[in-house]
Amino acid sequence: xxxxxxxxxxPTALQAIVVLSLISAIGLGLGKVHIWxxxxxxTFVFFAGILAGHFGLKIDAGMLNYAESFGLVIxxxxxxxxxxxxxxxxxxxxxxxxxxxGVAVVLVGTLFTLVGSCVLGISLPDMVGILCGATxxxxxxxxxxxxxxxxxxxxxxPALGCAVTxxxxxxxxxxxILLLRKFLTRPQDLQEKEKEDVNKPYIAAxxxxxxxxxxxxxxxxxxxxxxKFVISRLWRNGKVTxxxxxxxxxxxxxxxxxxxxxxxxxxxxxxxxQEHTDWNKEDxxxxxxxxxxxxxRIVVTRPELNGKKLGSLHLRNSYGxxxxxxxxxxxxxxxxxxxxxxxxxxxxxVGEAAALHNVEKVLGNAVKSLKxxxxxxxxxxxxxxxxxxxxxxxxxxxxxxxxxxxxxxxxIVGILIGTFGPRLHMITYTTRSANLMxxxxxxxxxxxxxxxxxxxxxxxxxxxxxxxLWIGTGFILTLVPVLLVGAIAFKSLKVDFGSAMGMLCxxxxxxxxxxxANDIIPGDHPSVAYATVYPxxxxxxxxxxxxxxxxxx
Length: 553
Description:
Elements lengths: L1 H7 L4 H18 L13 H11 L6 H27 L7 H26 L3 H11 L3 H13 L5 H29 L17 E7 L7 E2 H6 L6 E7 L2 E3 L6 E2 L4 E6 L4 H8 E3 L11 H4 L4 E6 L15 H5 L2 E7 L2 E4 L11 E6 L1 H11 L3 H4 L4 H16 L14 H16 L11 H23 L3 H5 L2 H28 L4 H11 L3 H10 L4 H28 L1
Antiparallel strand pairs: 1-6, 1-7, 2-5, 3-4, 3-6, 8-11, 9-10, 9-11
Helix pairs in contact: 2-3, 2-17, 3-17, 4-15, 4-16, 4-17, 4-22, 5-6, 5-19, 5-20, 5-22, 6-7, 6-8, 6-19, 7-8, 7-16, 7-22, 8-17, 8-19, 8-21, 15-16, 19-20, 20-21, 20-22
């Protein structure tokens, strides 16, 4: 049985792989269990590691440090790639209000952390760990630990603080939603309300009766109006055609136009008359309407098109087709000439069968190629992220420079590459499943190491007066900022209840609470608000965790 002993107990590289894999497998299995409809998911890996560490299971310290660091880097970089495409666009329109409210949740929690450390006598590193657990934010914990290691200090305290407060951090946001719902809402506040989506294309039909546009081509007409629109089809004398930018518009022409719903009334003035047919129903058979034209969805898979403007391809004039809509990450976009294409975009193309076949050659439409992850971009991004994280930043009043470290550098580079990579013709596309695999693998590895390291002193910390103080403090850090900002958002700023609750879940990085909010609130407002504030709040928590320790210690 010596081989079995060496496999599980003797500190070798092989033993480290076996132990971490076993902890991850057990934790992920337990994470599928729901208690009262709530599950801790991948976080159970953390507690499985704590239990293993408590019973004396150990791995080589060097291997532990390597696996923990590598897992953290993979997780935060993949996270940055995921949130990057929507990071800067989330500040537009109503997203600015939601993001500012999310930032308020982060800042109120940070302020309470600093005050609590002074009043309660809890050391600042331990208090930061308590905050990470109270906000269910393991990337921030990783950033805090890396900062403490840079400062030459013990990094185990934050892990213990996070471990003892994490469970109530999950439950606390759900409890806050319950309290806000019970004491602040009326029945009509929970009803689904229509919310304008400026990106969603709206299809309308117009008849040309405005003499100002008679005998002008489509390019000239487009210059007369500020609204963005695409003329998809033209009916004239009983025949339907695909208009080009040089097509001349005559009196009595019928036009099928793709635009935004907000722009439809002003386009009625431009063209003359809007028809009352509803062209936005899901069950419309476009191919049956146009006997000689077909509609087909074509996927952009040619790498050289990544980052190019749609108008630069001249598809309409060259092939006699029209791009009516573009689907990107589940969102419909208006197919304007200035829209930059990304690998994986799905274009709805209308035209004759032979023309669509030629357009397929231009765009690629090789869906299988998208299933192969572009690992070159991943590894280059990780290297760049580590380089950014290692740059010393000298700030006034500090004797030693600040570094973004293993957590801050990769997440910033991930966000930047995810946002601007296509414009630089970088192929950053990864399928949703591939990105989820990277994040889950990295987070599982990181949490297994974190739990194994913290497990030796976990229970003796919990079952002492300081442990109960930590748990109570963490619960306050969860509940009070959420209730305070939630009440202001809903009552003072008149944010609808679904969006307010999604904003709170996103600012606390709590997908379990989001699932609960989606169950009790109709519509997708909670999910949309969650996705709007999550990138900025996640980024802020990672950076603030480092800055607090660097400036205050």
